[in-house]
Amino acid sequence: MVSTRRQQAMVEAESIKSFEEKVPPKSLNLLIDQYFGENEANKHISFQDEFMIDNADPNKSEISTQLNKVDWNVGIDQIRLQQERIISHKGTVFNMLVAGRKNVGKTTLINSLFDEPITSASKPGTTCLEMKRFKIVDSTTHLNLTVIETTGFGDNVNNSYGWLPVVNFIDESMRSYVYQEEQPYRNNVVDRRVHICLYLIEPDSLNVLDVLTMKELSKRVNLLPIISKCDILNLESLKDFKTRLKKICEVQDIEICSFMKTYDEYESIKKLYPLSTITSDEMIPGSSKLGRNYKWGYVAIDNPEYSDFLELRRLLINDNLVDFIKSTEQYYETCRAELLKTRILKSKKSFQDNEVTLDFENVDANGLQNYKAYAIFNKSKMDNIMVEWCPKFIESQVKIKRKFNKVIDIEENKFMEWKKALIEKQTRFNNAIELMYKDIDLLKLECQELEYQVVTGRNTNPENSTTLVGLHFKR
Ligand SMILES: Nc1nc2c(ncn2[C@@H]2O[C@H](COP(=O)(O)OP(=O)(O)OP(=O)(O)O)[C@@H](O)[C@H]2O)c(=O)[nH]1
Ligand SMILES: [Mg+2]
C-alpha cells in the first residue's frame, strides 16, 4: 500500500522533471511530502536520501529512494531462511582437484579429509586424471563432491609437458560449461569447473615439473600447495623447506588461491600457507581418530604439533568452500567473455557480405549480431582455435619453424656458394672472351696489313716492323 503510493509519487515526480530548472530539488521534496501527508502507515518507514534529482545534467536525471526499516517487520529477515532452504534442497557442487606426483599421498589425503575411503589406490596405466563423484549428506544439506586425482603424473621419461593434461582438463571444463549454458535446456548441466586444486609435494623433493605445473595451475585455478608426508622431516628441516617453497613460489610467480585476492579471507590463507600434513588410512587402536603408526607409537593426523591437517580441513570446508566456488565463478566469467569474444573475432574471416554487421572494435556492443556470428562460427572452427591455443602445439610449431629455418639457411648457404662459384666461372669466361676478342682484333689488323701489302706490292720486314701485325707476332 505504502509502496504503491510512493510509486505514484515517483511517477508524478518524473513528470515534474521537465520543470527541473524551475523547481529546485528541495521544493520537489516538499511537493512529495505534501502528497504523502502525515499518514499513520508512513510512520513505520523512514525515507532516506529522499528524491534526488541530478540537476547538473538533465539527461542523467535519476530518482532513487532507499527504504529503511524502523520498527515494522516486513519479513525480509526470512529471505536468508528461504535461500538456506533452496541451498539445502539443491545441495552444493564442489569440485576438488588433487594433483601431485606418483605416491605423494593424494589418495590418503582425500580419504582422510572426508573420513571415508572416497578413492582407492590408482591402477597402473596411462590415465592422467581419475574422477569420482560423491554425495555427502548431513542433517541439513548435502555436498555434491567431485574429486579429481592425477594418476601417472610425471611418470614419463620426458616430462616436459607433463602438466598439459591437467591444465587441458581445467580449460576444457570452463569451455564445456560455456557450451552447456548456451543450450536451450539446462537442467542436466554438468559442472566440472575446478574450485580448488591441492598440489601435493613431498618434502625436499620439489622438481622442475612441480614448479612448472604449479605455475600453469595458479593461472587457472585456486591453487594451494600442500607439503604431504611431513613426518619424513624433523620440525627444523620442515620449517626450512617451507621457507624455500615460499621463496620459489614468489620468484616463479606462483600465486596461491589467486582468485581469492579480493576476499577478506585471502590474507589468513596466505598466512597459513604452505600447510604440511600427515595423513593415514589407519585408525589409532582404541580411538576414533586416524593416525600414523611408527615404531614408537601412533601420531594422530590432526595433532597440530606435527600436522596442519585440521587447519587444512577447516580452511577447505568449514571456512572457505563457498568462497572457492564464488571466486571460481568470477574467473569463469572472464573465461566465458574471452571465449565468446575470440569466437566472434575469429569468425570475422568466415562472414559473407551482409550476413552480420559486427563492430569488431567493440564486440561487447553488438547485441543480437553476436548470436548470428556464433551460428556461422561452427564448432570445427572453434576446435581449430583450441588446437592453436594448445601450448604443445605452439611449441611444436616453434620447433618446426626453427627446423624449417635451419634447412632454409643451409640451402641458402649452398645456393650462395654455388652462385659465387658461378660468378667466378663467369668472370673467368668473360676474361677469356675478352682476350679472344683482343686476338680477333689483332688478327683483323694483320689481315688488313697483308691486304695492304698485296695491294701496294710492298713487303715489310716483320723484324723491323712497327705495325700492329709486327707487334702481334712479337707477342
Ligand atoms: N610417511 C607417510 N606416508 C604417507 C603419508 N600419507 C600417505 N602415505 C603413504 O604413501 C603411500 C602412497 O600413498 P597414496 O595415497 O596411495 O599416494 P598417491 O599419491 O595417491 O599415489 P598414486 O595414486 O599411485 O599416484 C602409501 O603407502 C601411504 O600409506 C604420510 O603422511 N606420511
Ligand atoms: Mg592415488
UniProtKB/TrEMBL annotation:
Domain of life: Eukaryota
Keyword annotations of the record: GTP-binding, Nucleotide-binding
GO biological process, one term: ascospore formation
Pfam families from the UniProt entry: Septin
Membrane-crossing residue ranges in chain numbering: none
Keyword rRNA processing appears in the UniProt entry: no
Any one of the GO CC terms: cellular bud neck
Subcellular location(s) per record: Bud neck
Chief site of localization: other
Single GO molecular function: GTP binding
Ranges where the Septin-type G domain occurs: 90-342
Family the UniProt entry places it in: Belongs to the TRAFAC class TrmE-Era-EngA-EngB-Septin-like GTPase superfamily. Septin GTPase family.
PANTHER family associated with the record: SEPTIN
Record's protein name: Septin-type G domain-containing protein
Organism: Kazachstania africana (strain ATCC 22294 / BCRC 22015 / CBS 2517 / CECT 1963 / NBRC 1671 / NRRL Y-8276)
